[in-house]
Design brief:
Shape: elongated
Number of strands: 12
Order of helices and strands: HHHEEHEHHEEEEHEHEHEEEH
Radius of gyration: 24 Å
Structural class: alpha/beta
Number of helices: 10
Helix content: 40-55%
Strand order of the largest sheet: 4-3-5-12-6
Largest sheet: 5 strands, mixed
Length: about 300
């Protein structure tokens, strides 16, 4: 099959529109349409259902799109390796992690990485869904559990525990609970147990929800939970890595915490020689080491 036609087909399938695909490819709509029609004729099948709202792949179109997606991912991997310099770190690096860790721990530390490598172009993808690294949905991931895929290089970075925190202002106004029974006069801020999150955090929330807590605020990520706590809405379930950057947080019921949550960095085996990956891996590792040192030097919360 003609690669140009496959490339244009993939762009159309990805955009769902001849016009949008033409904009990406810098081709006219009529030129894109001719290439798609020619590809359909060569395959003897229809690849798209056409309707007023755009284009939808047929079953045969889905099969071809899966194939072109795999081809493009492999080409991107090859291009990334070719572009990697032995002495310089530059170009795009796609990093994925959870919304909480990405916004509350990683992003505030990235200025140090950019200071050292100003030509990096980081695409930070924050979501709870685990992206497929071998299929190049991302180059490197920081996840709250060990990756299950065999063809990944992984490194354990740290462990996290979910604990209860509140603002000093909230506790001054409402009092500090000494036992779980005291929670009947407080509001709990946490992730909903049905929201995507680490199992240890969900288990702690379920345990808390079994108590007679009259008022709750559930948010689908820890950034939202933190905002609720800082603004005095209640007592929140938050990861303990926040205590360094938010030292005003007061730990509540210090004997109550989740099981350990392992934090792993992972990337595809085929990117082992990538200078961008190495730079990011070393940066995160150094930041974790410094984070641990500072935790040991400060009183436990």
């Amino acid at each position: 099959m003609d690669w140009d036609k496959l490339r244009i087909f993939h762009a159309v399938a990805d955009a769902g529109s001849l016009t949008h695909a033409g904009d990406v490819l810098h081709l006219s709509q009529s030129a894109v349409s001719r290439q798609i029609r020619s590809l359909e004729e060569s395959l003897g099948t229809t690849l798209f259902h056409r309707h007023a709202r755009g284009l939808i792949l047929t079953e045969q179109g889905e099969l071809l799109f899966d194939a072109t997606s795999a081809m493009i991912k492999r080409l991107e991997t090859a291009a990334a390796r070719i572009k990697d310099s032995e002495e310089e770190v530059f170009g795009e690096l796609r990093v994925t992690t959870t919304t909480g860790f990405g916004t509350l721990w990683l992003a505030p530390r990235l200025p140090k990485l950019y200071e050292k490598y100003p030509d990096l172009k980081i695409d930070l993808m924050l979501e709870e869904r685990v992206l497929d690294l071998p299929m190049r949905e991302a180059d490197v991931a920081i996840r709250m559990k060990e990756p299950s895929q065999a063809d990944l290089i992984r490194r354990r970075l740290m462990t996290v525990r979910m604990r209860l925190y509140a603002s000093p202002e909230y506790l001054a106004e409402r009092g500090t609970p000494e036992t779980m029974e005291d929670f009947t006069t407080h509001r709990l801020i946490c992730q909903n147990t049905s929201a995507p999150q680490v199992g240890a955090g969900a288990a702690l929330v379920r345990e808390l929800m079994m108590r007679d807590i009259p008022s709750t605020l559930t948010v689908n990520n820890y950034f939202g939970v933190l905002q609720g706590v800082i603004n005095g809405l209640g007592i929140g379930v938050l990861p303990n890595y926040l205590t360094e950057d938010f030292p005003a947080l007061v730990r509540v019921l210090p004997d109550l915490e989740s099981n350990e949550v392992p934090v792993f960095l992972a990337y595809p085996e085929e990117l082992r020689q990538s200078q961008r990956i190495a730079a990011f891996r070393d940066f995160v590792t150094e930041e974790i080491i410094e984070h641990r040192k500072r935790q040991k030097e400060t009183p436990k919360l």
